[in-house]
Sequence to fold (228 residues):
Amino acid sequence: MPAGSGSPSRHRKTSSGPVSDAGFVLDVRNLGRRPGTLREMHRTVTEHGRLGLDLIAIPADAEVELDLQLQAVSEGVLVTGTASGPTVGECSRCLEPFDDQVQIRLTELFAYPDSNTEQTTEDAEVYRMEDDLIDLEPVIVDAIGLELPLQPLCSPDCAGLCPECGVRMAVAGPDHGHEILDPRWAKLAQFATDAPGTGDPAEGSTHPDRSAPAAADADVVSENQEEK
Ligand SMILES: [Zn+2]
Ligand SMILES: [Zn+2]
Fold:
């Protein structure tokens, strides 16, 4: 996972820099490493980078609500719950900006520094706790990336842009159209105008094939006529 490979550097940063129980970093010391100990946690995080994908994301420093349950287990701390926040996106069909909300579910184990899990797994497999601190940011970045759509829409039935002139169909209205409404109708219309003459010019590729047998028939007819 790309974000997993990015987490070690983040962890290094947390251990060297000034760390505290703030933002996406949780201090879990008060769980006391007693398996079964449970703590509910609610927090609004307002200092963070942009969280999401190219076309849609939670903007930097927008309010992200954390509703979590922290549970001490034998190998570490299990974090479950939700993170939710407002998103700003650009519709992949009509290119208009739009607002939405995203909520992600989290279930993540943070291994104790000296636990079996910590010894027997890679950094990218299981998150680590450092100095009784849990950094949720890489977890949230991963989960939001998976939750948000790669091709976001302003509404499920967004009509997009007019393929002829590029105007937004939502603005132009259902009556908007150009001379050629629909390829199928256009063909019917052409057929109707061509039908009376059974005109050759518009017949296109079928024309040469048809003309050959028609000429042969004509010869046969004329021969018959001569015999009579
Ligand atoms: Zn749209
Ligand atoms: Zn148009």
